[in-house]
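Researcher: Here's a chain I'd like modeled. Treat it as a single chain, no partners, no ligands.
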Amino acid sequence: MASFHQVESNLDEIAAPSPIYDPSEQPVRREEEERARLLPPTLCTLGYLVFFSIAGTLLRVAVESLTFYPGTPLNTSVVWANVGGSVVMGFLSEDKKLFMDNTGPAGKKSIPLYIGLTTGFCGSFTSFSTFIRDAFLALSNDLSVPVVQVPSAPNGGFSFMALLAVLFTEIGLSLAGLMLGAHLALAVQRWTPRLPRWIYTVLDPLVVILAVLAWVAVICLAVLLGESGQNSTLWSSTTWRGPVLYALALSPPGCLARFFLSMELNGRLASFPLGTFAANSGGTAILGMAYALQHSTAGGSGIIPCQVLQGVMDGFCGCLTTVSTWVLELSGLRRRHAYFYGGASVLIGLCLLIVEIGSLKWSIGLATPACFDPVKTEY
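Model: Modeled as a single isolated chain. Structure tokens:
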């Protein structure tokens, strides 16, 4: 059985080449590169993953809310979160000074803070499952538009064009964000400081405590404040409180599951990262089931069940799936491998949602979830 320090190098945030890299120089990504020997995942690493998964989810939900408004040029909810996470991932992957220490260029790959920022924060800030959900909703002509009612597409050809628009926009902008982050790292490299060792000495034990406290706090808040309230205020369950608290509580399990899947599976095939593929496909399948239950007449009929299902989609599935790691892998694969891996990821995810959500929509129809129905949420 492989030791932890052998399998941890399978994390593509760690083992993948920098985004500013010509994949045609090698037949397969990383085949001629020496994989870094890394330390076992310590309690500090897990603490960073828990803490940054909560932070990434909170920021993703906030960005989705801020960028979804009447007249928005892009009405896919998660696009700017995916772009932002990809920019940060590109910067961290290309940076050669911020996390440097006396161990040389490979030093940052064994630093828990670096793993927490890339796998934890960037992976949780971005969401592959939400991106595929938006692609399916575009295909089914159900993509939300924050304006007055608009007529339905006259035929399926318009929905197909909407699907292509979502795919090209999300993937293209995320890849562009990855390159932008890498170019920013190169541009400011002269002025980028090196984090001193004492920061790790202070932060590593502190983040374990903060991670536990933050996770316990959001669980308690979700249990105690899930539905109470009589008026439609900021703290009422008709706004952000209930769904977001459940999402934050369910974020760490999704992030940790993706972390261990990547460690175990990503090294099996150099040309096809199985761990990220399994996490993205599995998370999309779970999101499809939760979405179908939430929009059925029985599964999401109550306020609390509806909020919990929304938390599963935004929290667990959002952190189990990732776009930032996915586009980093695409940039490091040879062209034909990248097209095959990227196409398979999108096609499998879309087919899963067509079966899970499409079978409900095109049979009995999708009902309005109770937690988003203004009539049912009045107290």
